[in-house]
Design goal:
The complex is a heterodimer. Chain A is built from four helices and seven strands; from the N terminus they run αβαβααβββββ. By secondary structure, chain A is an alpha+beta fold. Chain A has a single domain, classed as Ubiquitin-like (UB roll) (Roll). In chain A, α3 crosses α4. Chain B is α+β, with helices and mostly antiparallel strands. In chain B, α4 packs antiparallel against α17 and α8 runs parallel beside α10. Classes of the chains: A alpha+beta, B alpha+beta. The interface between A and B is medium-sized, with 23 and 40 residues.
Chain lengths: 100, 453
Amino acid sequence: MLCSLFHQRMIAIKFFASFRDIVGRKEMDVEYRHGMTLGELLRDLCSASESLEKACFEDGQLRDYVKFLVNGHNIAFLNGLETVLKDGDVIAVFPPVAGG
Amino acid sequence: MLKEAVKDDDAKVLAIGPAGEEGVLTACVVNELGRAAGRGGSGAVMGSKNLKAIVVRGTGSVTVAHPKEFKESVVKSLAMMRENPVTGTALYAYGTPVLVNIINTNGIFPTRNFSTGVFEGAENISGEQMAATILKKKTACFACPIACGRYCSVKAEFEVEGEGPEYESIWAFGAQCGVDNLPAITKANYLCNEYGIDTISMGNTIGCAMEAYERGLLKDTGGLVLNFGNTEAMLEAVELTGKNEGIGKMLALGSKRLAESVGEPGLSMSVKGLELPAYDPRGVKGQGLGYATSNRGGCHVQAYMISPEILGLPEQLDRLAIEGKPAFVKMLQDFVCMVNALGMCEFTGFALGADEYAALLSHAVGREYTVDQFMEAGERLFNLKRMMNVAMGVSREDDTLPERLLTTPMPEGPVAGHLPETEKMIDEYYQLRGWNPDGVPADEKLSELGLLK
């Protein structure tokens, strides 16, 4: 009970490839707020970083091929930027990548 | 030496290595620019014919039927590749190793002989880690505007310098063997290049041997402690395979024969005897069908469904759905047959479509190919290969995946609980192909394609 009272509720964001150069780190934790969506979280982050905003969006839309995964699930098959986050979620952000 | 023999420094060479000479079944053919025809044992075929190398010197010129129109098509295609974020930027910037993290995050990075799809050491062997540590320069094949190649240099322990490793090789000697040491993986890749061995089949087979060893099924290893994660043993296993000595004689036969010899055929992660590559089909169901129906067996590039199912190219498909996948797999297989037949790299297909390839082909040969005719020619090629397989006894029972993947749900990660569902798609796939329920092309289809006398 005490543990849950003092547990700081967090969302982890992991950045990959060029996103690491843009934000200057591999990952960061942000405080979880009840009902927060991925879009809200992303707008908070982008308001502090113009280069991140430019890497994620073009004309207000998510750029083609930029991938957001929540707990390993592509948000295209969740609820896109309206995906409601949960305490402890892990978000992964990838630029366009390919290979074979 | 070979250039001296023909007294021409401009001659070009492709050759087999010691592995091909020794009859290692996973031996490949490598050209002097560091590129390999890696899969399927072509090095063993050359070796069996006592053919060490092919040396060529071109002296003529290449002509096309419609030079002006051909050049216009080339210029247009190059512009499309430059403007595309994948072919214009991403593949040059990161190379194929950048896939390690995204494939692992999706939970489909086969680990320790496909026992799971999540590798705890992925970050240590990622493209990002390579760029920060051992990457020396970026390289390109002849005249290629993409330049996805990586050339790495390792100092101190595992000291080595050369081409690669690519994503598949990193996986094969990494997660598949439980190894998270990128310098050691680079050394294993280098040894395969030197001996002339397919890195995918080599790493996959060592992973199979490691599981057999840990389960007490493989005992006579000549003292090699083949536990998952043992980098020294992994490197020694590659050396012994290249020389066809000791335990290497067994590894040289590939995972199928290795698993059969220890009494557990199900340990071989292969299709039609060819070792599977670096994507677990339990979490990419179209790719699973692509593996199962690939004419050469466990190969990802005959229908690279990772592109639509994971990367979102050319469109994002639901990787866990099976609806519509048979049609997509068929289309990609036919398309890839043509990209290969044109002698072009499949990576150009991230930016170009059948329209562009059909235009290039039409202007090169002077015969108009519509997109439909282009795709039909691909279908003809695919069926021709299938008929060769049918003549060798291949049928429906071979169009499948290893039993482990079919029956054991993914144990953890984002696709926990999933199976490939290949059997649910195979009938629709055969119907779309015009094949009978046993997977044999019907006479009507062969006649339609001009393959029946």
